[in-house]
Amino acid sequence: MKINEKNLAAFATSATPVDREGWLVKRGDVNKGFQRRWFVLKGNLLFYFEKRGDKEPVGVVVLEGCTIELAEDEEQFSFKIVFHGPGNRSYVLGAETQESMEQWMKALACASYDYMKLMVADLQRQLDEMEENIPVSTEVLGGPSPQPPPRMRHNPFNRGPTNGSATHHTRSNSVRSAPARADNTRPENTGRHRITFRELHTAYGRPILTDRNEWRHRQKQELEKKQVSLISL
């Protein structure tokens, strides 16, 4: 695999998002002692620098075809990046705490492209299962779409329940002041007192009926007068 070192170094120090960074110790390839390095993980590329803020990395590890394992035979909080196969190198790294070691191992194990493909495939499988469990509407199949249940009309003049198990409907502000009755009296107003249909009929309906009866009586009298006039002629 050909790698453009300049582009790789520019990517290592660019403003692209960093998945994880921090100090780790690394066992050298020639010198088997541990050296402290600043590690930066971007995607499936693990860069390491001699010092934090350096312009170019000392090296890079491409996290493909490898496994992340505990280094049980090494010092405490150590782990390995193992590339399987003859002649492949393994990297032994060490963290300062158990928590830091676990976080680094988890981040490195999830960084490879193969892992991302497995995650995408699993998410696609879950999505397919969800779509299979969604009921198909009859409208899609060409049949009539299900009609919503009819809405029950509420009559505000009905007396509300009296057992206290349901919400009592109260009279709105628009009917708190009822018009005068035929005897120039008003129905008793006690604030948010519930009002029945009989009370509303007494307050509103009777004056209307009275006026209508008076109008019909006058119309009848006028008609009788006209008939008398015609007869006299």
Question: Can you characterise this structure?
Answer:
This protein is of the alpha+beta class and 233 residues long. Helix content is 33%, strand content 18%. The chain contains four helices and seven strands. It has a seven-stranded antiparallel beta sheet, covered by helices on one side. A hairpin with a 6-residue loop joins β1 (20-27) and β2. The termini are far apart.
Could you give the topology of this structure?
Elements (H helix, E strand, L loop, with lengths): L4 H8 L7 E8 L6 E9 L2 E5 L9 E4 L3 E5 L7 E6 L7 E4 L3 H12 L3 H21 L63 H36 L1
Antiparallel strand pairs: 1-2, 1-7, 2-3, 3-4, 5-6, 6-7
Q: Distance between termini?
A: 127 Å
**What integer value in Å does the Rg equal?**
44 Å
Beta strands, count: 7
Task: Supply the number of helical segments.
Answer: 4
- Multimeric state of these chains? single chain
Helix content: 25-40%
Q: Could you report the average pLDDT, rounded to the nearest whole number? A: 76
The major beta sheet can be summarized as: 7 strands, antiparallel
**Strand portion:** 15-25%
Helical/strand content category? alpha+beta
> Ranges with pLDDT <50 over ≥5 residues?
164-180
Envelope shape: rod-shaped
Spatial strand arrangement across the major sheet: 4-3-2-1-7-6-5
The succession of helices and strands, N to C, reads HEEEEEEEHHH
Q: Gist?
A:
The chain is an alpha+beta fold.
